[in-house]
From TrEMBL, chains A, B:
Keyword Kinase: no
Names of required cofactors: FAD
InterPro entries: FAD-bd_oxidored_4_C, FAD-bd_PCMH, FAD-bd_PCMH-like_sf, FAD-bd_PCMH_sub1, FAD-bd_PCMH_sub2, FAD-linked_Oxase-like_C, FAD-oxidored/transferase_4, Oxid_FAD_bind_N
Keywords in alphabetical order: FAD, Flavoprotein
Protein name, UniProt field: FAD-binding oxidoreductase
Domain of life: Bacteria
Provenance organism: Ferirhizobium litorale
Record domain FAD-binding PCMH-type: where: 41-222
Length: 477, 477
């Protein structure tokens, strides 16, 4: 037999596990699985498998470990760092979770839901709402991202302030290990101190330690009161001071506090259908404030009014509007959630997903603006994000009329400038998107060697054959 | 040189790291470090070291790894499973964290505090209160337990409902690895998705993967409103229904919901100075309800009144009293927190620290009562705890007049009965106290072998010389 024949027979063995109709071999069929949204990564793969059960995933990984075949798990393919994209020039087999999409159980008394790893986030929202509960993870991509990917990237989004990241919304996991063994950690317990925290090790591991095939998610009561306001502000300092007031006043009823710059509002008004500036005059900065209360609608209304009153009195708020209906609330959030898309028609955009301790945000923003503008006069900084979490999407749109390719070619240079300041403030170069391929090499340079060494030891302990999503998060030595 | 001389010289090398005055060699001095509160474990040790800096801890562990010397880290020595006690018949060296007790930094704007691993929890509370902030971990032992131990056991306590376990109250760690290397993970970030979650691996590892010498803790606004009520109830079912109402109404303003049985109240009234029954008639069960609000004192008062009104109307609450002063609130909590101590004068007590999904609590309690009473007629079940977390301290006091030693000899038999039911409900045999020595062998029998195997691989990856708190959590193979 030739090598080609041997290889082709190996692929057949993988296909036999899921059945021919659930395997893609044609380049045209495979193509959508080889790219990600931003177009930064394009990989190669001979085969996409779509298992429908945990047992099928297990059989695939067992065969992969035995034959040393590299595997890339792919959930909703909405990741932003190339973690779900097969490597270029390799033969990684893609395992798509899209058929692993059952809601297994919903228990509104215990406030838990058990789901397959391939459930779409929006479907989880719906299933929770049907029993009058809330699953709070909220992302721009919620119509297509899937729970396994949300867990593997420890997804954040706009509700982290009150409810935490995906890590905090999960009680238990079912994971297929690289060897094909199944770890049943589907516990529904809020308190369980019995040995090492394996759950949190798989969460955020970006599919390099195993494939998450099932999860126990936490549910919450649906809030009775919901208020959204949009406030024009003079400065980032004022935004931080207003956030502190909001945080003290509302506690965990403060479910969102998003910072937006004038240019971001202009971009959305210009390019996103239906978006208009809610205030009559322009302001350098804006805050979108979201309050949800459990006891009554009146509490939310009173809190928002009190907060804005205190903000006006303290000279922190220049102008503000409170949404008067669910449609108006949705419109304000739509503006914020379109802010990334609205940058596309403006040309190239160099992105950063960073966090710093929130007391450092004003200084970081000032320093970064100075450094970026010095390096690239005319750059248009559209830095927005989750102020209350210290998480800024520090995006830089190209100067008007600049050459897009030449601008994008300066990605690493601009990263270096922004990340240098982030690190000087004790911040993170990836607040919520993860490492994937995009930040893999940089991670190794900024972390102490003992930390990289511990991560490698864990990787080797879990995946001795090195087949699980290779070269993501950790590079070859 | 004789072996004795070699060994004595080795001990001298350890002593030299901290200085003679910070080392204990005399049996009388060492004795308090060899026992734990319940008297279940008594170990042996030739030496107690009291390092005052991370560098000293590092030097000790480096020498220990090089010479294969077993080390037991000891924090406040308040653990309940023998995790902090040296092994019997071995020569484990105890490292006490008590001199590692500096508050390193307090930042009320970023809402973080950085502390040494040996800080006493009550001192952390005080330092937070001085800047008008709350550090919410609340335990009976807070006057003597220390942060390193709280983290290593992922401590729970009475405020978990609203604020989470110790795991949820920590942003970053400094850990000395068994090799003596120092991992500086003292990050102050709420969002940081950069690689595997090492932090959560050390938290709850009970000192078997390294020694936690520093931590970044989360602070919260001090609540403005605080209400505590004590309600007499007919049944555990009614307690659960009342909890659901409270949870929906108050959201995260519900900061405590503790279940207590009549016998527990009788024990505390009988044995704890100053405790009296707040209600004029006896009821089979009681709930202690704690509400804290951030916006105003009125909100807490209104919530508590609304909750009790709804409880009366629904027939869930038989009688109730709302504490009218801070002193009355403290008195109600004192009753709850004395419930463990109040069992001591009643003779032997066989303890369980279990959790089940909260929807299963009524059935679990009924089944456990039936099984325990069938096995041991006259047993006095004092099952109390954190209903809202599904966490019950299922304690069994000996029958009146029984022989204490004969009763305690049935510890494992009673464990077997109670834990069997816990596992049947998908519960945990250690909700908050951990594994230590007490539950080590049982853990290995109830967990899938792949889970124990992964834990062992992690242990070997972090502690190749096997010197860190050996035979705790994981036994010798």
């Amino acid at each position: 037999m030739t090598n080609d024949t041997v290889y082709s027979e190996l692929l057949d063995r993988f296909v036999a596990i899921v059945g021919e109709r659930n395997a893609l071999r044609e380049p045209a069929d495979i193509a959508p699985y080889l790219v990600e949204n931003r177009g930064l990564y394009h990989g190669t793969s001979p085969l996409v498998l779509k298992p429908a059960t945990t047992a099928e995933v297990s059989a695939i990984l067992k065969l992969a470990s035995e034959t040393g075949t590299a595997i890339v798990p792919q959930s909703g393919n909405t990741g932003l760092v190339g973690g779900q994209t097969p490597r270029e020039g390799h033969q990684d087999i893609v395992i798509s979770l899209q058929r692993l999409n059952r809601i297994r159980d919903v228990d509104p008394v215990a406030n838990v839901m058990v789901v397959d790893g391939g459930c779409i986030l929006a479907d989880v929202h719906k299933a929770a709402a049907e029993v009058n509960r809330l699953f709070p993870l909220s992302l721009g991509s919620e119509g297509s991202c899937r729970i396994g990917g949300n867990l593997s990237t420890n997804a954040g989004g706009t509700a982290v302030l009150a409810y935490g990241n995906m890590r905090h919304l999960c009680l238990g996991l079912e994971v297929v290990l690289p060897t094909g063994e199944i770890w049943d950690g589907l516990r529904r317990l809020k308190k369980d101190n019995t040995g090492y925290d394996l759950r949190d090790l798989f969460i955020g591991a970006e599919g390099t330690l195993g494939i998450i095939t099932g999860a126990v998610l936490k549910l919450f009561p649906q809030p009775l009161g919901h208020q959204v306001a949009f406030a024009g502000l003079k400065s980032v300092e004022d935004a931080l001071a207003l956030f502190e007031k909001a945080s003290s006043l509302c506690g965990t009823a403060l479910t969102g506090f998003e910072l937006m710059p004038r240019i971001g509002v202009e971009f959305t008004v210009r390019h996103i259908e239906g978006v208009r500036d809610p205030l009559s005059n322009p302001y350098p900065w804006y805050a979108l404030i979201d309050i949800s209360t459990s006891d009554s609608a009146e509490t939310a209304a009173r809190m928002m009014e009190t907060l804005l009153e205190q903000g006006f009195e303290a000279g922190l708020v220049e102008d503000a509007v409170i949404a008067a209906s669910e449609a108006q609330r949705a419109a304000l959030w739509h503006m914020r959630e379109s802010m990334s898309d609205a940058q596309k028609p403006e040309g190239g955009s160099i992105k950063h997903d960073v966090s710093v301790p929130i007391s450092s945000i004003p200084r970081f923003m000032a320093e970064a603006e100075q450094a970026v503008m010095a390096a690239m006069p005319g750059a248009r900084i559209c830095a927005f994000g989750h102020l209350g979490d210290g998480n800024i999407h520090y995006n830089i749109s190209q100067p008007v009329g600049a050459d897009k390719a030449a601008f994008i070619a300066r990605w690493r240079e601009m990263n270096h400038i922004v990340h240098g300041l982030v690190l000087a403030h004790g911040g993170s170069i990836s607040a919520e998107h993860g490492i994937g391929q995009l930040k893999r090499d940089e991670l190794a340079t900024i972390r102490p060697s003992i930390e990289m060494e511990l991560m490698r030891r864990i990787k080797n302990a879990f995946d001795p054959a090195g087949i699980m999503n290779p070269d993501k998060v950790l590079g070859a030595r």
